Amino acid sequence: MSASYPLVSVFADESCLGNGKVGDTPGGFGALVEFRRGDQPVQRFDIWGSERDTTNNRMALRSVIDTMLALSRKGNQLSVHFTTDSRYIVDGMSSWVRGWMARGWKRKVGAVENLELWQEAVDVIASHECMWAWVKGHAGHPQNEYANHLATRAAAQQDATDGLIPSLFESWIAALPVRAGQKAPAIAPFPDWERFIPAPPLPDLAMTRRQG
Q1: What's the pLDDT at 2?
Q2: What is the pLDDT of residue 1?
Q3: DSSP state of 188
Q4: Which residue of 11, 47, 50, 126 could cross-link 154, Cys pair, CB 3.0 to 4.6 Å?
Q5: Contact in structure between 46 and 166 (CB atoms under 8 Å)
Q6: What are the sequence ranges of the domains in the chain?
Q7: CB under 8 Å to 189, separation ≥6 — which residues?
Q8: CATH classification of 7-211 is 3.30.70.260, yes or no?
């Protein structure tokens, strides 16, 4: 299988400061978005956002929602290779959400956590095709580490971009210290469009809401 639309690569991460502590738990998300036209060099853009009192899972969902909204602003239809270290997103989008929708947005036992955000995420990806990929966090993956840098900074500063902005990834990675005798971390290559395997389309959101 191959990508049906122009291919975009997203590396996203989330952060929540003081998770489990009493009082506000500020959080943020960050995403590095990569485009490439033919054999041209990769173009990179950043996006991040924050909430004053939140959770890691909410911020992981916001990384999907806000990034996909930014990609959709001009009515684009895209093949999105979405990489995150959040199993909540990868397993949720690849498996869980289909069962929730089939049951009228209900789990087998208990309520769906962050229901409105899940529904918003399903809505914003509807016009695209997405491949959900997991990467181990804090393991030296350059693009994932940069997304974590954006997320933790957004959580601390409580700020946000207005959509996509030119990325500082290249200057950030160039400034990383490299120990003597070690090589700089290898940047993950842009995905191969012929190996793009999108998740099956989800049911119509409006229909499942009426059933629920």
Answers
A1: 74
A2: 67
A3: P
A4: 50
A5: yes
A6: 7-211
A7: none
A8: no
pLDDT classification of 21: cutoffs 50, 70, 90: low
Contact yes or no for 144/90 (Cβ under 8 A): no
CA–CA gap between residue 157 and residue 52 (Å, rounded)? 10
User: Looking at residue 198, what is its pLDDT?
Assistant: 94
pLDDT on residue 185 = 80
Q: Specify the pLDDT at position 205.
A: 81
**DSSP-derived secondary structure for 12-80:** EEEEETTTTSSS---EEEEEEEEE--TTSPPEEEEEEEEESS--HHHHHHHHHHHHHHHHTTT----EE
Q: Is 148 exposed, middle or buried (0-12, 13-18, 19+ CB in 10 A)?
A: buried
H/E segment holding residue 156: helix 142-157
Q: What confidence tens digit (pLDDT) does each residue in 84-101 have?
A: 999 999 999 999 999 999
pLDDT band for 121, please (50, 70, 90 cuts): very high
Cα(207)–Cα(210) distance, integer angstroms: 5
Q: What are φ and ψ of residue 87, in 5° steps?
A: -65, -30
Pairwise CA distance, residues 191 & 4, whole Å: 14
CB within 8 A of 151, min separation 6: which ones?
A: 13, 14, 15, 28, 29, 30, 48, 59, 63
For residues 120 and 105, is the Cβ–Cβ distance under 8 A?
A: no
For residue 19, give Cα distances in angstroms to 25, 55, 194: 6, 7, 40
Tokens encoding 153: 């900074």
